[in-house]
Amino acid sequence: MNDILFYLVKKLLLIIPVLLGITIAAFILGVISPSDPAAVLLNMDGVSTPSAQEIANKRHELGLDRPFIVQYLSWLLQILHGDLGVSYITQRPIWDELMLRLPVTISLASFTLLLVIFTAIPMGVFMAYKNNSKSDFVLRTAALIITSIPAFWLAILFMWIFSEELHLLPTSGYGTVVHLIMPSFALAAGTIGTLMRLQRAALLEVLEQHFILTAKAKGLPFPMIIWKHGLLNSLIPVITLLGNYFGAIISGSAVIESIFSLPGLGSYVLEAIRGRDYPAIQGYVIFTGLVFVLFNFLVDISYFLLNPKIRLGGK
């Protein structure tokens, strides 16, 4: 119990400077923005032209005339209280906007992750089992090809085939699992190819270990050796990739969400960028950075549970 507590505390302490760096990066985004946030806010109606005095007054109201370090510390204190600010466009709290769209992105990310897990891992194991055979060569080639195809190109191809030609799937919208099929396949394809090759390589490396040779010497069937002894020990790099991938989907699915008109976090930040809604962009960076760090922390915990060397104090 003390070992896992020490391990968790150590990892949590390492997270603090990462989160601090994320807040600094998000703040700098607002500082180096090409437009004055005060002028952007006063021009939201698209009609009025604010005077220099009005812009100066608005800058003072927003605290933009203070030194940068004072602005950052004040903004950081606001974030620590759970306040990400108010959107220029909707005039609603950014936290509420993110929470409204988060279920859509979580659904897309979860569906995509399940698709990757239940496709790539079994195929990677099969490739290792058929190592250097014709089947292995064909699957490795296929994995390399699908890894090289951009997700947005696949999305357009899927829409043309399954929506325009076959009329099987909707091109846009959200509400049922059917709406997630094409976006999930488009997002998953490249990672499926990468994970197939990674699972194959990791399992082949494990199969060269001494305990596998012992299991073979005992006369255990090779499929049993793979599934019972080899697979679990080969999952560390796979889980690392999956943890980072899930966080990456949540923070980087903007293009796919835009193509399929999914009202998730990605489409929200694209609208914020188009409207120069700097508080919304900063809030998005903070939130998705926090999610990414959280999933990396969960991956670290999985290391502790899966790898006995870590539980015993090894590297």
What would you note in describing this structure?
It is a single chain. The two termini are 18 Å apart. The chain has two domains: 1-81, no CATH class; 94-311, Orthogonal Bundle (MetI-like fold), CATH 1.10.3720.10. The protein has 15 helices and no strands. It has helices spanning 2-31, 37-42, 52-62, 68-80, 94-129, 134-148, 151-165, 178-206, 210-217, 222-233, 235-252, 254-259, 265-274, 278-306, 308-311. Helices cover 77% and strands 0% of the residues. The protein is an all-alpha fold. The longest helix has 36 residues, at 94-129. The mean pLDDT is 83. It is a multi-pass membrane protein. Belongs to the binding-protein-dependent transport system permease family. It is found in: Cell membrane. The chain crosses the membrane at residues 12-32, 106-129, 141-162, 174-195, 235-261, 281-306.
